[in-house]
């Protein structure tokens, strides 16, 4: 069965804005879910991420939230590039264009670099959440799939479908990251809601024994944060940040700024394990040095 977006967002297709008149060429699909589709597009030599949603009201709400955050004097400034409508099968579909971040999921990053990079990634993600919270919003649907890690642990959030004004009901969530799922609080847009999800995100990223797979099958009455402490005991990095995790899971932080300050003190002095240089490169460098030495000797004897 052909989905509503396959033809309109195939590689090479041109997306023409109805009101602003800007056009974008699709390079490839980045992701698709119940609330829309995200594609990598280019306009001239610049590359962007474009998200289109077929539920107009929900998508417009997402655009409005992102616009408000994009106007703040934070790292989100000018994050929103464009917002418009396009025609898909004769129907107006709203879309928005945002900065494109080239990176990878946190689980891939720490697999390549080492689990102790969670200290840096956690700091950068908390900084992002604090900026959103100070703007009057809660991210809502914080999870591994909704963030990208790039460069030296830099973090960017990539799906704003769950962004909700403070005090309202959370409009989009993923169960295992939701404190209501764990019987630890209401589904209300509070800073502590995002901090709970933040703690789950870190634990999932460090969950080497895949305990979360079994947790998804638990009966509601058996779900509580005690089930998460096993991961903290088994993993040395999780054990180092366990004091923070316990406070975040129990809703003991009043604000994300308070949580951020506590996190910085907790990880102060933690060192990162740099990835070792792989042996093929050592062999190449050694061979090159021998070649240069031999060439030098040869030239010397010629003279």
TrEMBL record:
Please state the span of the N-terminal signal peptide per the UniProt entry.
none
Q: Which Gene3D superfamilies match?
A: Transferase(Phosphotransferase) domain 1
* Pfam families listed in its UniProt record: Pkinase
Q: Which UniProt keywords apply?
A: ATP-binding, Kinase, Membrane, Nucleotide-binding, Serine/threonine-protein kinase, Transferase, Transmembrane, Transmembrane helix
Q: Name one GO molecular function term.
A: protein serine/threonine kinase activity
Q: Which residues form a coiled coil?
A: none
Binding-site positions, ATP: 51
Identify this protein by name: Serine/threonine protein kinase
Q: Where is each Protein kinase domain found?
A: 24-292
Q: Which residues cross the membrane?
A: 281-301
Record flagged with keyword Signal: no
Mind telling me which InterPro entries this protein's record contains? Answer: Kinase-like_dom_sf, Prot_kinase_dom, Protein_kinase_ATP_BS
């Amino acid at each position: 069965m052909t989905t509503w977006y396959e033809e309109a967002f195939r590689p090479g297709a041109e997306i023409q804005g109805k009101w602003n008149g800007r056009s974008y060429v699709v390079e490839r699909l980045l992701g698709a879910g119940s609330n829309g589709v995200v594609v990598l597009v280019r306009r001239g030599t610049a590359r962007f991420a474009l998200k289109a949603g077929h539920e107009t009201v929900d998508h417009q709400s997402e655009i409005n939230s992102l616009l408000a955050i994009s106007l703040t004097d934070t790292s989100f400034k000018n994050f929103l590039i464009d917002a418009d409508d396009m025609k898909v099968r004769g129907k107006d579909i709203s879309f928005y264009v945002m900065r494109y971040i080239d990176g990878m999921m946190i689980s891939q990053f720490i697999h390549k670099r080492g689990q102790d990079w969670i200290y840096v990634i956690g700091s950068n993600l908390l900084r992002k959440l604090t900026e959103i919270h100070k703007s009057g919003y809660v991210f809502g649907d914080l999870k591994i799939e909704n963030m990208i890690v790039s460069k030296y642990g830099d973090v960017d959030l990539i799906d704003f479908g769950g962004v909700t004004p403070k005090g309202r009901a959370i409009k989009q969530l993923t169960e295992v990251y939701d404190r209501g799922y764990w019987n630890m609080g209401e589904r209300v847009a509070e800073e502590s809601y995002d901090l709970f999800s933040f703690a789950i995100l870190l634990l999932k990223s460090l969950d080497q024994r895949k305990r979360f797979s079994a947790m998804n099958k638990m009966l509601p009455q058996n779900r509580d944060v005690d089930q998460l402490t096993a991961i903290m005991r088994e993993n040395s990095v999780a054990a180092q940040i366990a004091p923070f995790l316990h406070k975040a899971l129990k809703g003991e932080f009043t604000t994300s700024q308070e949580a951020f300050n506590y996190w910085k003190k907790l990880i102060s002095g933690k060192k990162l394990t740099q990835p070792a240089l792989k042996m093929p490169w050592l062999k190449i460098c050694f061979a090159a040095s021998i070649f240069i030495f031999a060439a030098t000797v040869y030239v010397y004897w010629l003279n």
